[in-house]
Amino acid sequence: MSTLKDKLASGFDEARYPVDFLAHYEPLECLSLKQESDTLYVKNRLSGEFAVAKCYADKTLLSRDSEGRILRSLHHSGLPRFLGEYESDTMLCVIREYAKGVTLSELLEEAPLTEQEALPILLQLCDILTYLHSQSPPVIHRDLKPQNIILTDDGTVKLIDFGISRIYDAGAKKDTVFFGTQDFAPPEQYGFSQTDCRADLFSLGVVMGYILTRQTDPETTAAAIRNNRLSRIYRKCTDFSPHRRYSSARELKAALLRSDGKRQKAALRFCFSALACLLFLCAGFAIGRHTDVLAPHSTGVVFNEQLIEQAVRLQLSKADDEPIMAEDLLAVTELYIFGNEIAAKTEEEMNRTADQLFAENKMKTGPIKSLADLEKMPNLENVAIAMQQVSDLTPLASLPQLQVVIVKNNPIEDISPLRGLKQLERLDLFGALVEDFTPLADCPKLTNLQAGGTLARTPAAFAGLDLLTHLYLYQLTLDTLDGIEQLSRLQFIELGGVVNGDLSPLLALPELKTVLLDENLRDEAGSIEARAPFAITYE
Amino acid sequence: MKDNHETPIPVGTSTLFRRIFKAADLRSYLDENEKSLVAPTFTESLELLCQEQNMVREHVICRAGIERGFGHQLFRGSRKPSRDNVLRLAFGFGLDVDETQALLRAARRTPLYPRIKRDAAIIYGLAHHDTIIEIQTSLSDLGLTALGGERYEHSER
Fold first, then answer.
1. CA-to-CA distance for A206 and A218, rounded, in angstroms?
2. CB distance B49 to B93 below 8 Å
3. Average pLDDT for A55-83
4. Residues B97 and B127 in one domain
């Protein structure tokens, strides 16, 4: 007679899961059990990493194949990474990164958050929604609620569960299948009209009310939010009519930033002191020279660098003659400048134009010498100041939100101001006059580094940068690759040259998937090619 | 005689079951046990189990194979237990499956789910009153992750 234990050993009920899924992952726990899907907490048998598998048993449901498709195309620090998909005749399993931390609903069990605690969470959610809605076509989450918002150990916010997300179909009039969670879903999600980006903004409004008051009823929540500015924002987010809500997450973020009394007071203080200085100077001028007092032309912010001002105007959609106020600058999260004429709205646009100028041999070094203007934009996350005359990075040290910094082709000698930028994920220092990159070991999120064309000589220059997954060394010849094995997370490396010609240290990198080599290394590559578990490609 | 309304809380579910069966009618049961109807917290559950099973913390922690200092923190409530540590404590107390599910609920952890091989093996071990060493051996024989394996740190959600 076979015992339960024998049955377990022979596969048990897990047989209904795809065979290759079970070959790669060990299910540890069932996180949720719904009619259409099981959500499992799983462990990668090879790497030991934990992940979440959403297993759909009913193939007829609309969303079952869309979660993988949607996740696969998204790359944002606030969204779980797509790790794979496994299918059998009866089931589809979508694997995503496990976000370690607490859900917002768990966090709120004890007490609501204060405005100061809530604001960074809401701002990060605005950024995630801006990213989702800026996809082409836009991705609408449709199930934004405290249970789907994870606060990870390092304070970043992750949005999970794309089970009922959909890609906006401009032709459709109404949603045909009703999903979402009561209280957090907008009226149109119950079939009044098709859900668009404003549906997520409605839910974000309800989440905001819930964070601050732990209530979801619109009237009592609005009354319970003590800050009038926030209460107004809440009402606008949760208006019955999508037309009266904020039109974008970016607009909502700007409103939230303006609602922050402390920041606003700081901005006002800045304006007052600027005005006072100006009046004082004018008075002195009038008394000293017995001339008319000069009237101030504008109380707007004055920039040191014209090209930076131009890029800011582009981000804020401000005309050249419109003054830019200090508080406007709080809404600037990205800036893209390349050479002497490119100020672009997105990184893609900047790169496209730069490629064109390089091809036509028209790219010239730009005029920017100082980054001091950037200090006026405390919420900057992505900044590119490429091919300028910048040597001092000190102003970047006061911008803790920075995630992407592109300062290639600048005469930079000291990178220590970047030390301790806690959110920095990607850094481009191509052409910097830097030999030693170890100060960057204090950036806990840095995974992607371009150090091509610099003065680095051996892998020791990158000691301690253990989290790097991508290292670009275009136009850089190292003396040796000995020591590269310390960068054990590397998945990608680009090499310009190696003096001793020995590429075998690359074989010690367990996660390496792709090696991009300069043509001159083709012969050296031949000697490791047969043993290499990674792909080798050439420039 | 002691007033029923002052019954010290928390009270174990088995006691509540006995009281339902003994009660003259439902209303009097509900009135008399009003304060006990709130589910006990995780630390309250641990205390209750100690009383019911006549065991001391030290003994349970030792039988659960949990490091001593950490075990006492779990009993005091100064640390939140991972799901695996709740399960280790279940083996430490020698609980059956239903009692283990109740303890997981009190700790706000997901219940054992018989469609998952590892959970099924744990259910089997609980039903057969395995010791912690026996269940760890069974898991290892089946190629499954041991309870509280070094890298198994899933303490939230």
1. 8
2. yes
3. 75
4. yes
CB pairs under 8 A between A and B: 68
Q: Is B130 a domain residue?
A: yes
The beta-carbon neighbor of B110 closest among A12, A30, A100 is A30
B72/B122 same-domain check: yes
Q: Is residue B91 part of a domain?
A: yes
Residue B65 shares a structural domain with residue B82: yes
Q: What domain range is B15 assigned to?
A: 4-37
Q: Residues 43-82, chain A: which have Cβ within 8 Å of B?
A: 43, 48, 50
Q: Which of B110, B111, B157 sits opposite A103 (nearest CB)?
A: B157
Contact B118 A28 (CB under 8 A): yes
Q: How far is CA B61 from CA B64, B67, B76, B94, in A?
A: 5, 7, 13, 12
| 3-class DSSP string for A120-145 | HHHHHHHHHHHHHHCCCCCEECCCCC
pLDDT above 80: residue A387:
yes
Q: Is residue B153 part of a domain?
A: no
Rg (CA), chain A: 27
Residues B61 and B17 in one domain: no
Q: Are residues B19 and B54 in the same domain?
A: no
> Is the pLDDT at A458 greater than 60, yes or no?
yes
Contacts of B8 (CB under 8 A, 6+ apart): none
- B138–A40: do the CB atoms touch at under 8 Å? no
Q: Which domains does chain A have, with CATH numbers?
A: 10-97 (3.30.200.20), 102-259 (1.10.510.10), 306-538 (3.80.10.10)
Asked if the structure places residue B87 within a domain, the reply is yes
> Which residues on adjacent β-strands are paired with residue A517?
A495, A538
* B120 vs A: CB within 8 A: yes
Of B113, B142, B154, the CB nearest to A8: B142
Distance from CA of B100 to the nearest CA of A (A): 15
Whether this prediction's pTM lies above 0.80 is answered by: no
Query: For chain B, how many structural domains are there in total?
Result: 2
Joined together, the tokens standing for residue A134 give 């800026």
Could you read off the pLDDT of A281-339 as tens digits, one per residue?
Answer: 656 555 545 544 444 445 788 898 989 998 998 888 777 778 888 878 888 889 999 99
State mean pLDDT over A145-158.
Answer: 88
Question: Which residues in chain A are closer than 8 Å to B141, comparing Cβ atoms?
Answer: 9
